[in-house]
Specification:
Elements: E1 2-7, H1 14-17, H2 20-27, E2 32-37, E3 50-51, E4 61-62, H3 64-77, E5 82-92, H4 95-101, E6 106-111, H5 119-124, E7 128-131, H6 141-152, H7 162-166, E8 185-186, E9 189-190, H8 193-196, H9 200-218
Parallel strand pairs: 1-2, 1-6, 5-6, 5-7
Antiparallel strand pairs: 3-4, 8-9
The structure holds adenine.
The site of adenine has 11 residues, from strand 5.
């Protein structure tokens, strides 16, 4: 998978993309992430990428030209499956959405700022709008990093133990059951006996019951 991210703050991705699973996915050649500084496409001598809104009002709007020029250049080099705009009024990201996006080959992600982006970009360039939750962030960068993580970790081969990503919460429509590790008794707080029993069928049943119980308690709409 190739992901091209358009942003005015490329440095914001240094941390999230240089550790853990995303780092490993890049090293294994399973994902390529390219960051593009929108300011590099500004023709303005001060490298401006925003302007006042027509009709007045507070806040600035991200201009068409630098973003359109960057997307046009990328599209001339290869075909893209989606051009995604991260925005709080987009489709809410959930596991089925991440699963679908993880199958794509080439994706552009656009991170917005200020009051938003010129509507004509949304009409003519953006093919999908995604929100990571019903709250407003200062910009799309953290949302893009979250979206990338959710897509990349489930690409086959990224996580060593193939079953691990599939047993995540939400993958089977249930929240994951509780997990424990050594010691079996910490100051009198004991690990459930069934997990120490070695009886695989009973353990599977217990885990399923716990997953259903948790889902009913925490996400009653899911079951
Ligand atoms: N940009 C600002 N807030 C956002 C959100 N909740 N999801 C996606 N992009 C955003």
């Amino acid at each position: 998978m190739r992901i091209d991210i358009l942003t005015i703050f490329p440095e914001m991705f240094d941390g999230p993309f240089s550790h853990s699973i995303i780092k490993r996915a890049k090293e294994k050649g399973l994902v390529e992430i390219h960051l593009h500084d929108i300011r590099d496409y500004s023709t303005n001598k001060h490298k401006r990428v925003d302007d006042y809104p027509f009709g007045g009002g507070a806040g600035m709007v991200m201009m068409i030209e630098p973003i359109a020029d960057c997307i046009d250049k990328l599209k001339a080099e290869r075909e893209y499956d989606e051009v995604i705009f991260l925005t709080p009024d987009g489709e809410l990201l959930d596991q089925p959405c991440a699963n679908k996006l993880s199958l794509l080959n080439n994706v552009i992600m656009l991170c917005g700022h200020y009051k938003g982006i010129d509507e004509r970009l949304r009409q003519h360039y953006i093919t999908k709008e995604i929100s990571i939750g019903d709250y407003v962030l200062s910009g799309g960068e953290l949302a893009a990093a979250v979206l990338c993580d959710s897509m990349i970790r489930i690409i086959p081969g990224v996580i060593g133990d193939e079953t691990s990503a599939l047993s995540d919460s939400f993958q089977d429509g249930l929240i994951s059951p509780p997990v424990y590790t050594r010691p079996a008794d910490y100051k009198g707080w004991k690990v459930p006996d069934v997990l120490l029993s070695g009886h695989e069928k009973n353990i599977d049943e217990w885990r399923h019951e716990q997953a259903v119980k948790r889902t009913k308690e925490r996400r009653p709409g899911m079951v």
